Every structure is written in C-alpha cells, then in structure tokens.
Amino acid sequence: xxxxxxxxxxxxxxxxxxxxxxxxxxxxxxxxxxxxxxxxxxxxxxxxxxxxxxxxxxxxxxxxxxxxxxxxxxxxxxxxxxxxxxxxxxxxxxxxxxxxxxxxxxxxxxxxxxxxxxxxxxxxxxxxxxxxxxxxxxxxxxxxxxxxxxxxxxxxxxxxxxxxxxxxxxxxxxxxxxxxxxxxxxxxxxxxxxxxxxxxxxxxxxxxxxxxxxxxxxxxxxxxxxxxxxxxxxxxxxxxxx
Length: 242
What we know:
The chain is mainly beta and 242 residues long. It has two helices and ten strands. The protein has helices at residues 2-32, 71-74, and strands at residues 44-54, 61-63, 78-88, 91-100, 115-118, 128-145, 151-174, 182-206, 211-222, 230-241. Strands 1-3-4-6-7-8-9-10 form an eight-stranded antiparallel barrel.
C-alpha cells in the first residue's frame, strides 16, 4: 500500500513538472515569434519646409509675388526649419523658425522683397503702411496618428511669436501744381507680436523611416497686429528622422 501511494505521488509530481516545462517552452516560442516592427519608429526629427501663405480678405491688400500659382515650389514666400521630439506615446512637441523669403533669387519681377502693403485705408500720418522682413518662432504640441505604417497625420496647437519691420507714415506733402502728386515720408520700426497657432500635416515615411516627405497647413493669429493679423501657411516639407 505504501509503495502504491509513493508511486502515485511520483506520477503526480512528474506530470506537474512536465506540464510546467511544456508551458514554459510554449511561452518562449511565442516570445521568439513576436513580430517586431520592420523599421524603427524614431523619436526625433528635423524638418525643412517651404511655404506660401494665404491671408483672408486679401482683396483688400496688395501682395507682391502672391500671384504665382506654383509659388510654393518655385517662389516660396516663406522658408523654415523645425525640430520635433516624441514625449509620451503619440504626443510630440515641436519648435520651429520661419522667415519671409528675402533671398535675391526669389525676389519678385521688379526686384523688391516680399511685402504686405495696406491699400484698404486712406493714407494719413500714423498709418501702418507696410510690413516686411517678418520672422516667426513657433512652439506647439501635437498628436501623431499612427494607424498606418507609412502614413502619419499630425494635429497640433500652440503658441507663435513674430517680429519684423513696420513702415509707418510720418507726414504727407501734397503737390498743388503739376503733376499734382504727393510725397509720403515714412519711418521704419522693428516690432513684435504674440499669437496662437494650429497645425495639421501629413508625412509619408521612406528610406527605412529615416526620411519623410509631406504637406503642411498652419493657421496663425497674432494679437495687437493691425495689418493682417491672420495668416494660413500651406506648403511641403522634408524631414530627417533619428
């Protein structure tokens, strides 16, 4: 009887040990067969962008070079660079710098740099006549939609800071004789403004996710800026991921 009990205990212990060993082997096999991502999802990116911008109610103002339909390729009104970093899961932050394109190669047909002029209001002393040479610094956070392997969509919101040259009318001298024209005396001031920013962009990953190309749309609204406080950027970018 005693031998029978010992034999049963031995069989039970052996069966338990065999079952545990089989489970461990299965688990290790499953872990070995886990499908890893083909390419790494990099957490840092440097982005170079070329943009035009659309301004609401632009019929009230004059925009030099704005008439180029293909401007965002041949005559980009604005060029910029951004750094993006992954912070938590699909949440990322981005900081960027843009400036109106004043390179001589990209100047307009009659040789002047990009300007926004005010033709809405009658000329008078104190009027903000023109804006030129503007630069912007953006900081925003965005959510990256990762549902697709090669296609990424980013939606973000944040703050923006812009600064540049404003040309004000100081005085106007009217010529009462022929040719009955006027001389406008102006002065230039360097001024800056804060605002809000909303961004939407699309990325297509290539070269083992090391590089991406895509399209951008950004809406800007600056506080206390009298001449054209709203602006919508649109264009394309190239990113290098690491």
